[in-house]
Amino acid sequence: MANTSDIRKGLCIKYNNDIYKIVEFLHVKPGKGPAFVRTKLKSVTSGKVIDNTFSAGHKIEDVRVETHKFQYLYNEGDTYHFMNTEDYSQIQLQVDTLDRPDLMKEGEVVTVIINTEDSMPLSVEMPASVILEVTATEPGVKGNTATNATKPATVETGARVNVPLFINEGDKIKIETEKGTYQERIKE
Known about the structure:
Layout: E1 2-3, E2 12-15, E3 18-28, E4 36-43, E5 49-55, E6 59-62, E7 65-76, E8 79-84, E9 90-94, E10 109-115, E11 121-125, E12 129-137, E13 150-155, E14 160-164, E15 172-176, E16 181-186
Antiparallel strand pairs: 1-6, 2-3, 2-6, 3-4, 4-5, 7-8, 7-10, 8-9, 10-11, 12-13, 12-15, 13-14, 15-16
């Protein structure tokens, strides 16, 4: 058993007869009244996201997990196939256990969180950023850069990302996976 001081991003807990992963949390200590922890929880079975507030010192039941590196191979509809980089065993996961499947290209190495009690995969963590090639975007208009103007671009995985006007088709860009936002252009 853990308590609210042990809450951190990525922690898996048992709550309401389901297993949830903590996506966001905020310790709040108001001037009047007791402290509490405001959390955003994502169900690892259904993918549903809920908000919950725990009072300070509240006991939470954490789930013992292991992390393993897996390489993304391919997907068939909503089923994604991964291979363990250590023993080459393969697993299949449904799309709702993935945070950003639209930013994952074949060969990408991700971290899979596995429940130690029943060896079931709980969720997939992407790297902090990925580098993808822009496959389609409108050409930027010269002189249209008075503000931080952006335009939509499609990357090689099919995801749509807003990019600055100077980005062209064929450019490689770094995308932050948590928010799905453009970070920088990669020079080769």
